Amino acid sequence: MHRIGVISDTHRFLRPEAIAALYGVHHIIHAGDIGWPSIIDDLRKIAPVTAIRGNVDSGDWARNYPETAAVELGGLVFYAVHDVKNLDLDPAAAGFSAVISGHTHSASQEIRNGVLYFNPGSAGPRRFHLPVTIGILTADGGQVTGGIVALNV
User: Fold this and answer.
1) Is there a contact between 86 and 72 (Cβ–Cβ < 8 Å)?
2) CATH topology for the 2-150 domain
């Protein structure tokens, strides 16, 4: 079993509650709107990180992060894109088990054509009266399942 932490839209703010919720994962995917490179440095103290840039990530430091990324974890392939509306491929045909996104600040998950579309919501400053959340994915036996974790903030 492989546990993957999923976080997005930190906007320069990594909450201690998010750090605590991510302890014990094998890998972390940050789905963009990082806000500042030290966020990724702090996440790397917990587990290896795959991170992409979002629409608010600009400047020289942001060039170190691609707009999309594919990563194989626990025998499954995950595809990260900040805004799922910018998805320009067929995830099922490409062999992806999950599409990880952010941008909306609203947590969601659904399966389409055998692919999990997973948005962990926003772990940064509270916006739009939405809960502050992260996600945990579990890759086990060739399957991926997801859970949304609401942070007590």
Assistant:
1) no
2) Purple Acid Phosphatase; chain A, domain 2 (3.60.21)
